[in-house]
Amino acid sequence: MRRLAPLTITAALALGVGAEVRAGDEALAPAMHSIDVEEHLGAVVDKDLTFVDQTGKSVRIGDFLDGKRPVLLTLNYYRCPVLCNVQLNGLTDALHAFDWVPGDEHFRVVTVSIDPREGTEIASAKRDSHLKALDRGDDIGWDFLTGDALNIKLLAAQLGIGYAYDAEQDQYAHPAVVVFLAPDGKIARYVYGLTYETKDLRFGLIEASEGRVGSTVDRIILSCFHYDATIGRYGPFAFGLMRLGGVLTIALLGIALLVFFRREKRRQGARRAVHAEAPT
């Protein structure tokens, strides 16, 4: 399934690259044509791809896939003046309002720089700034990675995410997308945008974990939403809402009947007591 990233024009404008929009057509600078997302749902990322984390430690993608928790993955670069800051700030805001914390039993977050020139120092500073905004302490499972050009390109290709370097501006153009990986590294979902709803993150993680994270209520609510590929987010599903309405109606009727039967039982008990006490 091939999908033109919704933020191609935004990225082009952010980079100062000329984008002329004509009636019914989009004319982009040549480098911009590679900025898209080809969704590789069901594919498994290479766990042996090697990067460096914010502490300078060499890590593998597989180190973040423990077979139990899904991973929320983004591709950005840390000195980005516009798009990455907006996207990562939007993600941080959504996570701040989340009742799950990155690194707990529910999920982890990994951000990988697409700029091979970036190193540990800038990755560490970027992580610190977002953890401060997240305000959940320092022991958070959100890692900021850097790597060489080969491993970056291999990971991006496996995810189906295209990006381009603009030498004139010394900046990267890329789509704003969050990828949800299952605990075994399988690509489960893509969610697009510069800002994120907590329900989109929650539903994406529940789907990626195949229902192993989240409560029963979460899974019931998820049944009322479906992933809308046209907007890259979750939207209400009419049949699911009707089904939930039916379940709630049955539950309310059941409660009403239970109350009725209990009252009737008490009344019958009271009548029997009165008859038992009456003189013969």
List the helices and strands and how they pair.
Elements: E1 2-3, H1 8-15, E2 19-22, E3 25-28, E4 37-38, E5 50-52, E6 58-60, E7 71-76, H2 83-96, E8 108-113, H3 120-134, E9 142-145, H4 149-159, E10 164-166, E11 171-173, E12 177-181, E13 187-192, H5 198-208, H6 216-222, E14 225-228, E15 233-236, H7 238-277
Parallel strand pairs: 7-8, 8-9
Antiparallel strand pairs: 1-4, 2-3, 5-6, 7-12, 10-11, 12-13, 14-15
Structure, explained:
- By secondary structure, this protein is α+β, with helices and mostly antiparallel strands.
- Mean pLDDT is 78; it is low at 4-28, 211-225 and 237-242.
- The protein is built from 7 helices and 15 strands.
- α2 (83-96) crosses α3.
- The chain has a single domain, classed as Glutaredoxin (3-Layer(aba) Sandwich).
- The strands form 6 sheets. A 5-stranded mixed sheet has the order 9-8-7-12-13, sandwiched between helices.
Q: What would the keywords be for this entry?
A:
single chain, alpha+beta, Glutaredoxin
